[in-house]
Write a structure and sequence with these properties.
The chain is built from ten helices and eight strands. It is globular. Helices cover about 55% and strands about 10% of the residues. By secondary structure, the chain is α+β, with helices and mostly antiparallel strands. Strands 2, 3, 4 and 5 form a four-stranded antiparallel β-sheet that branches. Strands 1-6 form a two-stranded antiparallel sheet. A two-stranded parallel sheet has the order 7-8. A hairpin with an 8-residue loop joins strand 2 (about 15-20) and strand 3.
């Protein structure tokens, strides 16, 4: 499903309760003219909350003559959760947790002094939150040479990641991969940060350089794509 330039083949989009494929909990399916929507791997498109199902349905209903997958971010995230995350949830959680070993917030500039101070002022409070709320006291270092993080901190981060269901893990993965920081991703999932703050923290160095030297079009485009990706993940989480 969702091949590029597929013609719209349905008139009505509705939402209905269903029993999920794994038989656990409540789910809501999206129906096109009363027929179930299938994922690319032929699994039922069903999500665990009605608000999310209605938002996904609205994306389908908004399509005109052709279905444009790029205009359906919530559907794409739902498909990712169903096809890619849920079937191998433990393995995905382990891969995402490994971002804690080289978290962006732990690697600091050595100069200039104003950037050093900006990083400390912006990132230290979030690392303190990770230590206090997650039990993950990470080590900060200057430069880019890898530093070994305490096993207890990494275990705490892994525990926080593995506790998420497939849908929240999908959103976390999107944020972490975009931001380069597991701490930022977990802070957004847990409501410590919103999408705007997550972007600002993850792009701190780039913003500093842009203010000093100006931003080129490629950098602006990258920032726009990152903002959209993290905002979509935040919306997905909120609808859960």
């Amino acid at each position: 499903m969702l091949k590029s330039d597929m013609k719209r083949f349905y008139r009505d989009v509705t939402v209905a309760p269903t029993v999920p494929d794994n038989g656990a909990g409540e789910a809501f399916q999206i129906l096109l003219d009363g027929r179930k929507v299938k994922s690319p791997l032929a699994r039922e498109l069903a999500v665990p909350s009605r608000p999310l199902a209605e938002a996904v349905a609205a994306e389908w209903d908004a399509q005109l003559e052709k279905i444009l997958p790029a205009s359906m971010p919530l559907t794409q995230l739902a498909f990712t959760a169903i096809d890619r995350i849920a079937p191998q949830q433990a393995e995905v959680a382990d891969r995402i947790a490994r971002y804690g070993e080289t978290d962006l917030l732990c690697y600091r500039a050595m100069a200039p002094a104003d950037l050093v101070q900006l990083q400390a002022d912006s990132w230290d409070p979030l690392l303190a939150w990770a230590a206090d709320d997650l039990g993950a006291a990470l080590v900060v270092t200057d430069g880019i040479v890898p530093v070994d993080q305490p096993e207890a901190a990494l275990a705490a981060l892994a525990h926080a990641v593995s506790a998420l269901d497939a849908y929240r893990l999908t959103a976390l993965a999107a944020v972490v991969q975009a931001a380069g920081s597991l701490v930022i991703g977990l802070a957004l999932v847990r409501g410590r940060l919103d999408a705007s703050a997550a972007v600002a923290l993850s792009q701190l160095d780039e913003s500093y350089q842009s203010e000093k030297w100006g931003a080129d079009k490629e950098a602006v485009d990258r920032l726009g794509a990152l903002q959209a990706e993290i905002a979509q993940a935040e919306t997905f989480l909120g609808l859960l």
